[in-house]
Design a protein that fits this description.
By secondary structure, the protein is α/β, with parallel strands linked by helices. Strands 2-1-3-4-5 form a five-stranded parallel β-sheet, sandwiched between helices. β4, α4 and β5 form a beta-alpha-beta unit. α6 crosses α9 and α7 crosses α8.
Length: 208
């Protein structure tokens, strides 16, 4: 299990536990940064690479669960693996409902943690790819002129060139030109692909 760019954060107020976790993660080729408190971690700029957070539940100041809530409220999405020596069912349920990957009770097996981290990094990598894809799609849509957006909306609604021309009060030839520009600017190689893009953008007309 190696990932040169991934970054694992560890937040635990127990210095020996932090050192142990850092040694474990570095031994399998992972980069790691450790913090003694939630406040320290919050001061860290969010990373631009796939990452996850190994987080102790009980911490001085902000607890692990409170840190999780802060991250959710601040739109700082990062997969969280909770670790605790004092876990209980209501606590684990709360963490999982708020989006935690898993909840490990100390002492846990090294491989159990490593497997959880691998899954968390894979989830974050996928989420980042989706966000990047969506951002690129929005940029392409924003590059359309208002009339091209009108044509796009009618195209994905299933209207033919003649029908679109009637709706917009223009000629079929003009619609055909707009249609070509829409397909090129959106990098769509088919109407089906354009419809999928419109669906992702939330501009697909509702089914009748």
């Amino acid at each position: 299990m190696t990932d040169a760019e991934a970054l694992v954060f560890v937040v635990d107020d127990d210095a020996s536990m932090r050192e142990s976790l850092q040694n474990l993660l570095r031994s399998v080729g992972l980069r790691v940064e450790a913090f003694a408190s939630a406040q320290e971690f919050l001061r860290r700029t969010p990373p631009e690479v796939p990452s996850c957070l190994v987080l102790d539940v009980r911490l001085p100041g902000l607890s692990g669960l409170e840190l999780q809530q802060r991250l959710v409220e601040g739109d700082r999405a990062i997969p969280i693996i909770f670790i605790t020596g004092h876990g209980d069912i209501p606590m684990s349920v709360q963490a999982m409902q708020a989006g935690a990957m898993t909840f490990l009770t100390k002492p846990f097996r090294d491989q159990e943690l490593l497997d959880a981290i691998q899954q968390a990094l894979a989830r974050d990598r996928h989420a980042r790819e989706q966000r990047a894809e969506m951002a690129a799609l929005r940029l392409r849509f924003d590059a359309l002129t208002p009339r091209q957006r009108d044509v796009l909306a009618l195209m994905v609604a299933g209207l033919l060139n003649k029908q679109i021309a009637g709706e917009l009060g223009t000629s079929e030839a003009t619609v055909k030109t707009h249609r070509q520009h829409v397909m090129a600017k959106m990098s769509a190689d088919s109407l089906a692909a354009l419809i999928r893009m419109a669906d992702k953008l939330g501009i697909l007309p509702p089914k009748s």
